[in-house]
Amino acid sequence: GYKRPPNKNKYSFIGSGGTQAGYPAHWIDHPRLGKLLTDEKDKIGLAIICLGDSQNKSWDTDAGKLVNYLRKKIPGISVLWIGAPPIQKWSTKYSHKRNPSRIKTNEKIKSASKTNNFTFIDPFEYLTNNELKSSYSDGLHMSRAGAGRLLSKTLSGHQPGQGVTQVAAGPVANQIKKLSTSQRNMAAIIE
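Above: the chain sequence. Below: its structure as tokens.
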């Protein structure tokens, strides 16, 4: 369904993995999403998609179709897709044994991101299945604090068990050195 947050410049369409709204195909030609994209196209420059259920659907093709649908409605829109995070071992409601299928789904979406030129964040590259309980609301869905930790790790270049990634020497690295921390963080999102 559609939910308008208090900030008038943000829009939220919510779907659950156990329903059709949890899959990209549901949102393609969705009447309310289509109306919003048409009516507000001059105000929308970034779409953030957080989908990636473990059920075996055609994620590689449907992810590309959804991104292409957004770009058809708003040429030049940037798309950031955040995949499914690891289910936590401590969850009493969900089994972390479903993680291999979630990893497979994320790999399909990552492949689609390369083909369709959008940014994809795979939470499995930054999180483990033993994160702080405050990072998840129920062991499956990330909390606001958990999403903040994920984005912080993504922007800083940290991965579980690794230090900060170093930029190789060269013309791009020299340009990066001239950027402020804020500019580097924004560049990481765009990249």
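The CA atoms of residues 158 and 164 lie 5 Å apart.
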